[in-house]
Amino acid sequence: MAKEIIQVKNLKVHYPIRSGFWNRITDYVRAVDDVSLTINEGETYGLIGESGSGKSTTGKAIVGVEPVTSGQIIYKDVDVTKPSNRRKLNYNKDVQMIFQDSMSSLNPRKRIEDIIAEPIRNFENLTTDQERTRVQELLDIVGMPSDAIYKFPHEFSGGQRQRIGVARAVATNPRLIVADEPTSALDLSVQAQVLNFMKHIQQQYNIAYLFISHDLGVVKHMSENLAIMHRGRLVEIGSRADIYNHPMHIYTKRLLSAIPMVDVENRIKHKKHRQEVELEFQNDQSKWYDKNGCVYPLQQVSGNHWVALPKDEVIQEELNEKGRD
Amino acid sequence: MSDKKKNASKTEVKKAKISSPASSFKVVVREIVKDKVALTAFIIIVLILLFTFGGSLFLDSSKVTEINIIDAYNGWGVNGHLFGTDDGGRDIVNLLIMGGRNSILIGLGVTAVCELVGLVVGLVSGYYGGYIDAIIMRIVDFVQVLPRMPIEIVLVTVIPHYSAWSLVWIISVFGWTNTARYFRAFVLSQRDRDYVLASKTSGSSDLKIMFREVLPNITSMLIIDVVLTIAGNIGIETTLSFIGYGLPPTTPSLGTLIGFANDPVNVVNRPWLWLPATVMLLAISLSINYVGRALQRAGDARQREN
Question: Which residue of A60, A109, A147 is in closest CB contact with B216?
Fold first, then answer.
């Protein structure tokens, strides 16, 4: 088995809600609630969920730009939720991030050279010439012309900007890149282009990705293992086959049924299936979600497959699973 | 701009086109040239600066304030004094040149101090947020509720070895708060942008992010604020001098000239004493404001008329 690179244990990110006359903390927004996952070396781990489900917050917490309420992120046997540990390890040399909005993630006042060289300047001691060669190399890898280094971000198209973002993320030869919806702001043909570059770089440098997305089609193309998130909690973890072929949680089923399909003949059938799943989701809310609207803790149903099932449901589902195998 | 030049000189590949960042100097120039009022205002500013700073090069400051009783209260154009003379026989044109220069210099000095302090405080407060922001903003609130004018008057009379420099510091003590608030607002809007996060993940220190990443993105606001506060600060200096608590009597200023209008006899019978200075103050304040508004449009794309 591949070696694990990072372990997230019971990660919680809560934001206080203040109200009342004294502006005291009355409740919390549980953006990320008890999330645990393990990413192996060189693999792509998909993290899927709807808007506001906490997937980006999880990603930012892993990179270290979001303060963690509790829980641990273990990297090289050290808990990197503490800033001092991150500094000691030069953590961000190894763990980088690709942002969703390529325009706002590149400083509009800086040239591409300075943007890509920023992590190199901070983590590596290179002379100006070496640094320039390295930047050229990186631009080469992501298929950008060499005169791009003198330009500003606004002179590029969305796909080109995202590739610059990828180049910056791989500048320090990281081992893990958190890709926060890297393609959701791009049109389909450019999406494929950027994804292929990411895959290409992954094979070349053995980088692991935490691929955050709400697009199940893209994730299917990219990742081996995935986790589904809903309302701050994990709903289902498993391999690609587990999730796509045997979805167990109603929310996963609902997500899968919502993938648009170009299949004119079976259109009516798909629509019916979608409506059935939606109806089940509406009717069985109380069964799959507790009274606060959160999903239940994860339970193992087979090897790598964990699902947030209600307690009494486990035995029944296990039987089903066995029957299917 | 200096950054651009530095990069350009490093460029070995000559064929590469050196491009400029979005909303650059060109936009500012275009915005001013297109707006006829702003263009006129800009020309007036240049003329006044030439008149005061250029003129003061040819004047001996000790001669200007020399008292010559025989020439006192000469009217318009009498004895070669274009705008007449004051109660001490001093030539008003010369006083206008020296006074205008002093007033503008003090305005610039106060602005420099206020902008520098306000910028740093605003950046720190806006960038860190949380408790640091809360503490700094309460200090700013406190300074802002203090009655500014009375305290300034008291300080002017109390301070030993009072000079133009002391006046700059006294005005600046109260001036930085508005600037700090102004910049804090812009930094707040910038700090959650992804490029700041990207810099954090790239391992840049907070100081570096504040001054190298966030600051270049609010430079247009900086320019606007500098221009607009210069006008305000010239006004404050003139006010203090007008009521007699500004510059020391040996240093002429627009305020002391306008101060002649305190005497009803002067208002009615000797308009040459106070009218030129008043017109000049009005012209420069209005002009600076018009240019400032053009800059504001250049800096804020939403207000721009294309």
Answer: A109
Are both A196 and A306 inside the same structural domain? no
Q: Which domain holds residue B249?
A: 25-59+97-303
Q: Is B207 on the interface with A (CB under 8 A)?
A: no
Q: Kindly indicate the confidence band of residue A58, based on its pLDDT and cuts at 50, 70 and 90.
A: very high
Residues B170-183 as b or e (16 or more Cβ within 10 Å = b): bbbbbbbbbbbbbb
Write out pLDDT tens, residues B159-213: 888 888 888 999 999 989 999 999 999 999 888 888 998 998 888 888 999 998 8
For chain B, give the mean pLDDT.
Answer: 83
Q: Chain A: residue nearest B19 by CA? A: A151
The distance of Cα B125 from the centroid of its chain, to the nearest Å, equals 24
The Cα–Cα gap between A157 and A286 comes to: 46
Nearest CB to A119; choose among B11, B203, B213 = B203
> CB-based contacts of B238: which residues, under 8 Å, 6+ apart?
B103, B246, B253, B254, B255, B258, B281
DSSP state for residue B69 in the 8-state scheme? G
Q: Specify whether A287 is located in the same domain as A300.
A: yes
The count of structural domains within chain A is 2
Q: What is the mean pLDDT of residues A299-325?
A: 68
Number of domain units in chain B: 1
> If pLDDT is split at 50, 70 and 90, which confidence band does B143 have?
very high
How far away is chain B from the Cα of A180, in angstroms, using its nearest Cα? 11
The last residue of a domain, from among A245, A273, A299? A245
Q: Return residues 25-84 of B near A (CB < 8 Å).
A: none
Residues of chain A contacting B20 with CB distance shorter than 8 Å: 152
Whether A224 and A253 map to the same domain: the answer is no
Q: How far is A88 from chain B (nearest CA, A)?
A: 12
Residues 6+ away with beta carbon under 8 Å from A130: none
For residues A230 and A268, membership in a common domain is answered with no
Interface of A with B in 256-295 (CB under 8 A): none
CA of B24: which chain A residue's CA is closest? A109
Quote the CA–CA distance of B306 and B293 in Å, as a whole number.
16
ipTM of the complex: 0.83
Which residue in chain B is spatially nearest to A101 when comparing CA positions?
B194
Contacts of B19 in chain A (CB under 8 A): 150-152, 155
Establish if B151 belongs to a structural domain.
yes
Q: Note whether A80 and A192 are same-domain residues.
A: yes
Average pLDDT over residues A45-63: 89
User: Which range of residues forms the domain containing residue A130?
Assistant: 4-245
pTM metric for this prediction: 0.81
> Alpha-carbon distance B28 to B30, whole Å?
5
